[in-house]
Each structure stands twice: as C-alpha cells, then as structure tokens.
Amino acid sequence: MGYSTTIIEVGPDASDFLAEQMAITFAGNAPEELRSYCFVIDKSELTSPLAVGQPVLIGDQEWRITAIGDVAEKNLGALGHVTLVFDGASEPRLPGALHLSGSHPEPALAAGTRLVIGNA
Fold first, then answer.
1. CB-side neighbour CA atoms (13 Å) of 44
2. Can you give the pTM of this predicted structure?
3. What one-character-per-residue DSSP string does 36-88 give?
4. Residue 57 sits in which domain range?
5. Which residues have C-beta within 8 Å of that of residue 18, sequence separation ≥ 6?
6. Angle value at C-alpha 74, between 96 and 12, nearest 5 degrees
7. In the chain, is it the N or the C terminus that has fewer CB atoms within a 10 Å radius of its CB?
8. Number of structural domains, the chain?
9. Is the CA virtual torsion 77, 5, 72, 67 positive or negative?
10. How buried is residue 73: exposed, middle or buried, by Cβ count under 10 Å (0-12/13-18/19+)?
C-alpha cells in the first residue's frame, strides 16, 4: 500500500476548490491561511512510491493517477499535503499535484472518508 488515511476535518471553504476540480489535503498541521480550504487528514506514512496508473480510493470510489507533480510524493510523505486534481491530465500543472481520472461526477470527499493511494 502506498498511503492510507482518513479525512478528519473539512474546511468550510474546501468546496470552493472542489468547484475547480481540486482538493487540497494536509495532515493536522495545515497552515492557518490554507486550513479553511483543506481536507485535513490523519498523518500517515507513505510506504511506496507514487506512480502513474496507481489506484486512488476515495471511500468506495476508484480513481487512477494520470500525472504526478515533482514534489507531490515528498510533500505527501512529509506533510500529508497534496493537491488532488480531478481532470485526468497527463501533465501536472502544479508541482504538488496528483492528477486523477475516474468515472465519478465528483469525488466523495467528506469527514470520515478513507483515502487510499496505491494498492490496498
């Protein structure tokens, strides 16, 4: 498994980014200026490298990684921070982004939802 965690808090402005097909995660130490826009997650350990084609489970929804920004793996492992972009792009538009594709109209991100990156 690459990374497994639970969303513990949803910032009041997180839906603003979801409207742009993005979601920002941070482990409990999200910077105050970003916290209201974040999906705060339990800190977890990244146990294997991120790779294009890996599954990402958001609750019972399956998504696939299509592109990985240069610092996404480092930030996820160190801070629980990554920007999930639900556009299926093959090139990352942000250094800390994971681009995902899936057949769902929108991700099922909510407090209590499990987030698993890689094979469970």
1. 24
2. 0.94
3. TTEEEE------S---TT-EEEETTEEEEEEEE-TTHHHHHHHHS-EEEETT-
4. 3-117
5. 106, 107, 109
6. 50
7. C
8. 1
9. positive
10. buried
- Provide the 8-state DSSP code for 94: S
* pLDDT of 47: 94
DSSP assignment, residue 119? -
Extract the residue ranges of the chain whose pLDDT is less than 50.
none
State residue 30's pLDDT score.
84
Residue 120 pLDDT? 53
- Phi, psi for residue 82 in degrees, rounded to 5: -155, 150
The CATH number of the domain holding residue 88 is 2.40.33.40
Express each pLDDT in 61-95 by its tens digit: 999 999 999 999 999 999 999 999 999 999 999 99
What pLDDT, on the 0 to 100 scale, is given for residue 109? 96
Give me the torsion for CA of 53, 57, 60, 63, rounded to 10°: -40
